[in-house]
Design goal:
2 domains, alpha/beta, 8 helices, globular, P-loop_NTPase, ATP binding, about 35% helix, binds adenosine-5'-triphosphate, about 230 residues, ABC transporter ATP-binding protein, 4-stranded antiparallel sheet, Rossmann fold, single chain, ABC_transporter-like_ATP-bd, about 25% strand, AAA+_ATPase
Length: about 230
Amino acid sequence: MEKAVVITGMTKQFSNGRGIQNIDLTIYQGEIVGILGPNGAGKTTLLKCLTGLTSPDRGKVELFAIDIQSNYKEAIGPVGALIGPAVAYEKMSPYKNLKMISRLYSGITDTDIDMVLQQTGLTPFKDEKISSFSMGMKQRFGIASALISKPRLIVLDEPTNGLDIDGLLLLRKTIQEISKHSGVTFVISSHHISELEKLCNRFCFLINGEVSVYEAGNEPLEDVYVRKVEVAVR
Ligand SMILES: Nc1ncnc2c1ncn2[C@@H]1O[C@H](COP(=O)(O)OP(=O)(O)OP(=O)(O)O)[C@@H](O)[C@H]1O
C-alpha cells in the first residue's frame, strides 16, 4: 500500500519545554486516522509539522515519498488542510472565495465548487458575505476550502469545533463518501472521541508529546484513551 505520510524521528520543542518528541508515524493512502490527546499534548504541533506550517527541530516528514523540507511546494501540492481558523476574504461570499482558491489549481470547475458547498451545507449561504457568518458556518467554509483542490491527503485540526448536529453529520457523511469514492487519506484531530470512533480505522494517541498507534478494535475507544492517559500520568 502506498505511504501517504511518513514521519521519522520528529521533535519540536518550544521555549516552555513543551512540544512533541521523537515521533515516528506512517499513514497509508486511503486511511482515516484520528489524532487524540489531552489539551496541550501536541496534536496541532504535529499537524503543523506534517503540513510544513512549522519546521520541526529534528526529524523528517515525507508526503507521498516527497520530503517536505527540501521540496515543500511539490510535497504540499496534493494536500488540503484546515488548521486553526478558516482563512477567507470576509467581505466576499464563500462562492467567490472558493472561486479564487480554485484558480490556484488546474481543473477545478464551477460544478466542483457547487459540490463542495453542498458537501458542507453552505449552498443556501453561498452568496452571503463570510463576515456575516457564525463560528460554525466559518468552520464549514474552512472545511470547504480544504476540500476544493481535490487533495489526496486532507488534514483537519478539530474540524468539528463549532459545528451543530447537522454540520457534524454532514461532515461525517462527506468524509466517508470522499474516502470511499476517491481513496483520499484523512488525518483528523478531535476531542470528540465518539465521532472519531465512527470515522477512523486507526488512531494515534498523543500524550505528553509522545505517540502511540491503535488499530480500531472491539474495546470502546474511550476506554482505550482513558487507560493510555492513566498510564502516562503514573
Ligand atoms: N508557538 C508556541 N510557542 C510556545 N509554546 C507553544 C507554541 N505552540 C504550542 N506550544 C505549546 O506546545 C504544547 C502543545 O500545543 P498544541 O497546540 O500542539 O497542543 P494540542 O494537543 O493541539 O492542544 P489542544 O487540544 O488544547 O488544542 C502546548 O503546551 C503549547 O503551550
